[in-house]
Amino acid sequence: MKTALITGASSGIGLELARLFAKSHYNLMLVARREEKLKEIGQELENDYGITVNPIQMDLIETDAPSRLYDRIKEQNAKIDVLINNAGFGYHGAFKNTDWETERAMIQLNITTLTDLTKRFLKDMLERNHGKILNVSSTAAFFAGPNMSVYYATKAYVQSFTEAIAFELRKTGVTVSALCPGPTNTEFQERAGVENSALFSSKTTPVMSAKEVAQIGYKGLMNEKTVIIPGFFNKISVKSSGITPGFISNRIIESLHK
Fold it and tell me: For the chain, what is the domain count?
């Protein structure tokens, strides 16, 4: 059986992706901070699908976490066929007022950890000439983000990085994809402090379910799509980023974050 490693797997898109891979008879290695929650999920998926789930409690914000996670998996002689870099978080507020330590942690998790894990597991995949990597980006990657400036910038990095290495690997057996959801009903908005913003409460910005996003992401990954944008509204939004003047899109995004 193949094995998928999923970070940020205790809720939201990560959890729904875990269910999809379990249904497809992948063994799972699930990483998150909440150990009890991971164990509950693991037991549920093992009972429902007859697979093996290894829950790994780890805070991937810690600078040595990627190396510890990689070493732990190597010690178990596990071969990762699919890597899902889903762990990440957002942070709301004008940059002049926001807390640097929170932003530093966000950069560490959204950028450094994702890049480090990709580097480590990609080498093993290339040795086998087989594997898939899904980096969870965002429609935010295609815009500047007033009042969420650092978060939007981290996703711009994820998007650029993913598309670049996908092109580098085009003649190998390894594919890399970026999943770019828009507003999605997960724990993200509460942690980011935008649960009451127009972005998540306005009828003009449809909020998708984590299950919907995961299903589209899974299908796109398996079909080897480099950029996966779930939902018609999100596709239109991304297309508009190339033709809408920056000052207009900045004003729109600023208003959505209020």
Answer: 1
